[in-house]
Design brief:
The protein is mainly alpha-helical. Helices cover 70% and strands 1% of the residues. Strands 1-2 form a two-stranded antiparallel ribbon.
Length: 499
């Protein structure tokens, strides 16, 4: 049995030990219900009507036809059994982890470095959300196709002949989630290392010219990047979840996001499925900006000597751009699942230099491997504990509340759970608390506030509380006159408004 196979089996055992517990988990009301359980289209999976819907729907604010085909396959085979959907997620994560290990080890000939990078990817606690939450399959599936695209590029050593196959897999990835719109830029980084298609010891001007030439060679992929960005924007705008803000606000938010994911990579504690904006203040944003600037400057200065640090760091920065918040979609501020692929770059930038340093000092590699395995076992335990919080809604909400306390969006999710349970009075009271909290907050989010007004208006309408419902409709329409939810309610009791 080869070393690569032994390490692959060990990594597989750790992944299964952490994530097979999800086979006994329920669906989460946060998206799982709307996208799967209450989605009538899945009942007709692979019919002509289903396929037409899958390729034209913007349900959930995304255009992801291949995700619907994946869900449809599970549903057609097993019905709405959460165990089957969770099993598919675990299988996809297992394949992604082993594929990443294979790619790195084959094209760098560094088995142990590749193993630890793949193991961090597989077992990092912040990646739990991407696996344990069924609706996050889009992150798993898009990464699978993204890794196939990278494999196609590496196998052809970055020659132009591979562009059709790379473009094919990139297109498949974008049909799940537009995360990999930055793939052409990542491939330029791979031209630096491990392919060595760019002579890094040339002058800075020549180095820039080489990088630009390699990027322009990928013009078909750049067209896919433009298409992916446009489709991603239109799909979110179609369901009115694009948050508009000034350029300065977007930049500050992106800096905060980078600092958040950077911090969680090294200190994966206080993880939750929803994070309020108040968790990050201006001071921490300044620290994040300083850290990004210093590491970027260091990676530039040491590019010729340590190209791996440069590639890994800018892998992280580039892969996170679509999820950084430079254009914010929806009311959430950060999400653990967004770190799924970008963290690979950070792992490369940290782990490879550690092995180089040990070799340079003449220290035994066995000591580093033992320390690394110990860290992985600790990481696996933390991920197992974090995964357990996804067992059901009550445990997930309780853990989020322990991390950040009550905040408006978290209370809104609790109100939705009450609504689906038929507990409308509790839902109204809980959502009213969310509204009060949002109105009194320093960083009010208009789109979230309108959604909260619409929810209470709907709840009160169902309860027959016409006057109270009308008040919430009026408040919401004053903020957003074109909101479709509120306009439907207004039309439903038009006579009351005309009195």
């Amino acid at each position: 049995m080869t070393l690569h196979l032994r390490l692959s089996l060990f990594l597989s055992a750790l992944i299964l030990a952490v994530y097979t517990q999800t086979l006994g988990f329920e669906f989460i009301h946060y998206d799982d219900m709307n996208l799967i359980v209450l989605n009538p289209e899945l009942a007709g999976a692979f019919s002509f009507d289903f396929l037409r819907w899958a390729f034209t729907s913007f349900l959930g604010g995304n255009w992801n036809p291949l995700l619907w085909l994946s869900f449809g396959l599970d549903y057609s085979l097993f019905g709405a059994d959460p165990a089957a959907f969770h099993a598919t997620n675990v299988l996809l994560h297992l394949i992604n982890s082993l594929l990443l290990f294979y790619l790195l080890s084959r094209y760098t000939n560094a088995v142990f470095e590749s193993f630890f990078v793949a193991a961090v990817f597989a077992l990092h606690p912040q990646h739990v959300e991407a696996v344990a939450w069924v609706s996050s399959r889009k992150d798993l599936l898009s990464t699978l196709f993204g890794l196939f695209a990278i494999q196609s590029y590496l196998a052809a050593k970055g020659t132009r002949s591979c562009m059709p196959l790379v473009g094919f897999f990139m297109a498949l990835s974008l049909m799940v989630k537009p995360t990999y719109v930055t793939l052409p830029f990542l491939l330029v980084l791979l031209d630096i290392w491990p392919l060595n298609n760019i002579a890094i010891r040339a002058s800075w001007s020549d180095l820039l010219r080489q990088a630009l030439a390699r990027l322009l060679e990928k013009w078909p992929l750049l067209l896919l990047t433009v298409a992916g960005c446009l489709i991603g924007y239109w799909s979110h705008a179609a369901v009115d979840v694009v948050s508009y803000s000034t350029l300065s606000e977007q930049i500050v938010f992106a800096v905060r996001a980078y600092g958040f994911y950077l911090q969680k990579f090294f200190l994966p504690k206080d993880l939750a499925f929803l994070y309020p904006a108040s968790l990050t203040d201006f001071e921490s944003s300044a620290y994040a900006a300083l850290a990004i600037f210093c590491v970027s400057l260091f990676s530039f200065i040491t590019l010729r000597r340590f190209p791996i640090v440069f590639v890994g760091w800018f892998w992280f920065l580039g892969a996170l751009v679509p999820s950084s918040g430079i254009i914010q979609f929806g009311p959430h501020d950060y999400a653990d699942r967004f770190s799924y692929f970008p963290h690979v770059g950070l792992s490369i930038a940290v782990i490879w230099p550690m092995f180089e340093w040990v070799r340079l000092k003449g220290l035994p590699l066995r000591l580093l491997n033992v320390c690394g395995i110990s860290v992985l076992l600790i990481m696996a335990c933390l991920s197992w504990l974090q995964t357990a919080h996804w067992r059901n809604d009550s445990m997930l909400l309780a853990q989020a509340r322990d991390v950040s306390g009550d905040h408006s969006y978290l209370l809104a999710q609790q109100a939705l759970i009450y609504q689906r349970a038929g507990l409308n009075e509790q839902a109204v009271l809980t959502n009213r608390r969310a509204i009060d909290m949002e109105l009194s907050g320093s960083s009010r989010r208009p789109k979230l506030l309108v959604a909260l007004y619409a929810l209470n208006a709907t709840l009160l309408y169902d309860m027959g509380e016409w006057e109270a419902s009308r008040w919430y409709v009026q408040q919401g329409l004053e903020m957003e006159p074109s909101d479709s939810r509120l306009l439907r309610l207004k039309a439903a009791y038009k006579e009351q408004f005309e009195q």
